[in-house]
Design brief:
This protein is an alpha/beta fold. The protein has a single domain, classed as 3-Layer(aba) Sandwich (Rossmann fold), CATH 3.40.50.10320. The protein is built from nine helices and eight strands. Strand 2, helix 1 and strand 3 form a beta-alpha-beta unit. Helix 2 runs antiparallel to helix 6 and helix 6 crosses helix 7. The structure holds zinc ion.
Length: about 270
């Protein structure tokens, strides 16, 4: 579920406490971006604009790993978890179509039930080895001045750990290599949305409508509003870094460079 706002982790619910003066406006795009997201709608709120832009302008291959089935995301007492989960999967497919994602991996953990388990880590590792992203995107699990949903923290932590600790090594989950035909893969970097200290920004002015429509596809999560009203609010949210960046509409992320492929790292740990 989205955090405090219908419009995502990049919305005003996240206090930007310490934006680095060394921030970067990123104008390139990854070859493959894999977004690890806890609930249907989080990804679109957090990085929907950037993904839509990269897919359309750069031919980026975007893949979504949907960690939970979102089966608790309702205030309707008569809604069953099973019906809601099925509904939200349909909604996620529609949202990802709007963004232009190539594929969605549904892990179907119960909403509110994500744990940092070997199973969950192996699932995200498998997706990394299958799709070979140069960039993973996830929720920043290390917020310090504001609370976030437990599933958000778990998914962010496991995404980072899968990229750094597990996916690159033959020694981790070797059955994926020997039995499934996968190969180890080194992810170059992570962009985390919902961060208190973003340091990379993507201009998304032409993709506010796509972001709005992709969020609107999650109809079970939307309060009544017109598309124009939603577009207005999302656009307003996207101006929160305008004074810093000088760019009207952006999505901001905190970046981690894993450095797995560089020689220093190999010498240090070999
Ligand atoms: Zn969520």
């Amino acid at each position: 579920m989205l955090q405090n706002t219908q419009f995502g982790m990049s919305g005003p619910s996240v206090p930007a406490t310490s934006i680095s003066p060394d921030f970067e406006i990123v104008t390139t795009a990854p070859r493959v971006a894999l977004a690890v997201t806890p609930h249907p709608d989080d990804c679109e709120g957090g990085c929907g604009g950037a993904l839509a832009k990269w897919v359309k302008e750069f031919g980026t291959e975007a893949v979504v790993v949907m960690c939970t089935n979102g089966n608790k995301g309702t205030s309707e007492r008569d809604m069953t978890p099973e019906t809601l989960a099925a509904t939200r999967e349909v909604e996620q497919r529609a949202a990802s179509d709007i963004v232009g994602a190539k594929d969605i991996v549904f892990l179907r953990h119960p909403d509110g039930g994500l744990e940092d388990t070997m199973l969950f880590r192996s699932q995200v590792t498998r997706a990394i080895r299958q799709y070979k992203p140069d960039l993973i995107m996830c929720i920043d699990p290390y917020r310090s001045t504001s609370h976030t949903h437990r599933d958000h923290r778990m998914s962010g932590q496991v995404a980072l750990d899968a990229a750094f600790t597990y996916a690159w090594s033959y020694q981790h989950f070797p059955e994926q290599i020997t039995e499934e035909g996968l190969e180890p893969h080194m992810v170059e970097q992570a962009y985390m949305w919902g961060s208190e200290s973003p340091d990379v920004f993507i201009e998304i002015g032409d993709y506010l409508e796509a972001k709005t429509l992709s969020l609107e596809a999650h109809a079970s999560q939307m309060s009544p509003a017109t598309t124009e009203e939603r577009l207005s609010r999302i656009s307003n949210n996207a101006t929160r870094y305008k004074d810093l960046t000088g760019i009207e509409y952006t999505e901001g992320f905190r970046r981690i460079r894993f450095g797995l492929g560089n020689l220093d790292w190999q010498l240090l740990y070999s």
